[in-house]
Amino acid sequence: MVPALRYLGRVCGRARGGFPGGFSAACEPWLLCQGGRRASTSSFDVVIVGGGIVGLASARALILRHPALSIGVLEKEKDLAVHQTGHNSGVIHSGIYYKPESLKAKLCVQGSALIYEYCTQKGISYKQCGKLIVAVEQEEIPRLQALYERGLQNGVQGLRLIQQEDIKKKEPYCRGLMAIDCPYTGIVNYRQVALSFAQDFQEAGGSVLTNFEVEDIEMAKESPSRSEDGMKYPIIIRNTKGEEVRCQYVVTCAGLYSDRISELSGCNPNPRIVPFRGDYLILKPEKRYLVKGNIYPVPDSRFPFLGVHFTPRMDGSIWLGPNAVLAFKREGYRPFDFSARDIMDTIIKSGLIKLVFQNFSYGVNEMYKACFLSATVKHLQKFIPEITVSDILRSKENVLNKPSWRGKVLF
């Protein structure tokens, strides 16, 4: 269980100073299962830093499997799940893209089934609207066929290769030579899912502390005065207001700040985060009939981004895009959001320069599409020729922020 959490978060271990050369000893399952009685309000057996969907899912899983543990979640905002969890396209992916036998492939295939099951159980609305991955040029067909074989190896259910006539049956206004039909792809409001996780966690006895922005994590050098717990809770987590929480173990799931929080805990901050903002367009309501489900391009492994696609939303809107543009702030959802520290970290500490040199022409094209609406529409017309510039609205918010780790953009 605990090694799996190390994949979900960034750290599962004692704070710096606890064990030399990292904290793998603290991640042994038998150590985590110690604990027992409920701690005081400011002391926990386990603290999870980050109140997004990964942190809340981790907290929920831990407390359901180990109800004797006292577990707290720390979130820097006043509300839960307001950043990456609340700023994404909402697609439930089927697992077709990832390398066979990789953890990412296994988790995506299993996770899609589990999310449908959970939403049904909790009465959370979702739509299993499917997805077409469409080849519009002859040169894309070999890549499409290879992707289909990869999906079969990954165990994705219901996949089939379809020709032009069947594409029209699924998406009457879409043109294409061949497509992969992924019927189990769906859409959901992930913030709603995350808040349901939080409710499960709290009903099981877990604690959530909002407005708690972690500034420092360290090992206590001595027992706090008049403390009945002695050194049972040796890790001190301080926020920007000087308030403290103590714990035995810490799991960090800090999203776009995962590298910095990892460094605070005494672990390696690599790979570094480089934020990319996804700029979406919106199809006018009277033109929504043009799109029924998700329509995606055939991915090209030469480039780090997937390309523009058509994404239906739970509110009935249709998103078009995104263009992937370097953000000047880690949580910068608007074009002119800026943080000097984030920019310096991006330039000095990350793999940005390597990414730029490897994909210079592609990056310039993404910037061009972000500036000129007609350029994006031209790409969209490869799939649905009926779309025109007058059918498009610019989104009032740039809703997607994707991190890049060592020059690889994570979608």
Short description:
GO terms for molecular function: (S)-2-hydroxyglutarate dehydrogenase activity. With 411 residues, the protein is of the alpha+beta class. The chain has helices spanning 2-8, 29-32, 53-65, 103-122, 141-153, 164-170, 190-203, 258-264, 340-349, 352-358, 360-371, 373-380, and strands spanning 11-13, 43-49, 71-74, 91-92, 126-127, 131-135, 160-163, 178-182, 186-188, 207-209, 214-219, 235-239, 244-252, 273-283, 294-297, 309-312, 318-326, 392-394, 400-405, 408-409.
| Biggest sheet record | 7 strands, mixed
The global form is globular
Strand-residue proportion: 15-25%
Compute the separation of the termini in Å: 25 Å
Number of alpha- plus pi-helical segments: 12
Mean pLDDT equals 85
EC number: 1.1.99.2
Enzyme class: oxidoreductase
Organism: Camelus ferus
Domain FAD dependent oxidoreductase: 45-337
Give a verbal description of the structure:
The chain has 411 residues and is α+β, with helices and mostly antiparallel strands. 30% of the residues lie in helices and 24% in strands. Strands 1, 2, 3, 10, 11, 12 and 13 form a seven-stranded mixed β-sheet that branches. Strands 14, 16, 17, 18, 19 and 20 form a six-stranded antiparallel β-sheet that branches. The protein has twelve helices and 20 strands. Helix 3 (53-65) packs parallel to helix 7 and helix 11 crosses helix 12 (373-380). The protein has helices spanning 2-8, 29-32, 53-65, 103-122, 141-153, 164-170, 190-203, 258-264, 340-349, 352-358, 360-371, 373-380; strands at 11-13, 43-49, 71-74, 91-92, 126-127, 131-135, 160-163, 178-182, 186-188, 207-209, 214-219, 235-239, 244-252, 273-283, 294-297, 309-312, 318-326, 392-394, 400-405, 408-409.
